[in-house]
């Protein structure tokens, strides 16, 4: 396509955009990519990576406490929030540079600029005040935290973006939301010594996860000292003369805190990009509509990742990028596979999960077997920590296929990654039973639960 400046122009230098740009450039395509903020995108700069670093930071007080049962005397520990923030900043800057270098090293051209589309083949780079042309355009602009303008006092609230870089660690925080971001931050702040309240409008935190895990995590978090108020939302946030905030809740309570963090969802970045002007179709939620190959209604424009609001996870954005390159540049139309995605919630304890929850399985299958084990992990025998690990397999009684695997406890995320393989391969409970255990581990329970704990037949629980 010599008539255009680029074979591919990517808008957005996050997980999906960088992968597509890098792989297409490595194929010899002429690729440009524009990022308005920082290469690496949400995941690297203000999502998965800094979040996990903060999870590690917040776990130390429990490690120190648990050490006593193993004979250690740990002197009184102190924590410096500014050190954590600075070290996090150094690490994400390192990763940011690698992301940019990888694109350039593959032959792609990077632009530090906001981009908008002025015509199906023309992109305006605002930072450079110039236009470029491209044969194919990929939109990978991600999403951002949903604001709550209807909430009186919303201007006093922060979002996950700001939570990473607070000047001071608050003494008390209220987090509103019940999704994984809200739950993870509640555990992070609590672990760092902040008086933490989670406020959620629904009946139980973490909708769409297995109810057993949701309830057990809720109980465990409360036992640690995190206040969880379900069936409640904030009605107003008022700044007090002393600078603190009063959050008035629908339940009638008023919480006085130093920070209110809203984690009530994420919305796709599709505004002010010229998309309406070129007639690009969008969903009611403002996400870009795509077909199974990530192609929009305009033939040469594609979209991947969070901006399409399919499954908002980094590995999904990356997978969609790889499929896009196969389809658009390798003559091998490949639809991304969104089935059976293993995932984790880095709560404390952690959740690792893949496949159908019990409730979902029961809706779809007439005979469901549940294998369930709840036990104290070995590390807590000497530490004395009163925390249970929960493991659960959801099996189709007719075909014996394992439909879902759900874990709450140490290293659950790591286990979910490996469980993703047998579940994706459609293996049966008999395959699990034939697998030798690794002893002594927590994971061995997954292959030693020989008898169903209970069955659910036609929606009715039977023993
Ligand atoms: C707090 C938090 C924790 C998370 N934890 C996890 C986790 O543990 N595991 C997981 O899998 N996922 C996690 N996610 C989700 C994950 O970060 C996203 O799914 C992933 O980053 C999506 O990648 P993307 O390429 O679609 O978009 P993004 O990574 O958001 O990248 C989009 C980029 O486009 C840029 N951009 C936007 N508009 C323009 C424009 N007009 N011109 C130029 N550039 C533009 C943005 O600045 C951004 O850098 C987390 C998210 C958050 C917020």
UniProtKB/TrEMBL annotation:
Name of the protein = Glutathione reductase
Family per UniProt?
A: Belongs to the class-I pyridine nucleotide-disulfide oxidoreductase family.
Q: Which organism is it from?
A: Mesorhizobium huakuii
Q: Which reaction does it catalyse?
A: 2 glutathione + NADP(+) = glutathione disulfide + NADPH + H(+)
Entry keyword set: Disulfide bond, FAD, Flavoprotein, NADP, Oxidoreductase, Redox-active center
Extract the InterPro entries matched here.
FAD/NAD-bd_sf, FAD/NAD-binding_dom, FAD/NAD-linked_Rdtase_dimer_sf, GSHR, GSHR/TRXR-like, Pyr_nuc-diS_OxRdtase, Pyr_nucl-diS_OxRdtase_dimer, Pyr_OxRdtase_I_AS
- Xref: PANTHER family: GLUTATHIONE REDUCTASE
Query: Mind telling me which Pfam families this protein's record contains?
Result: Pyr_redox_2, Pyr_redox_dim
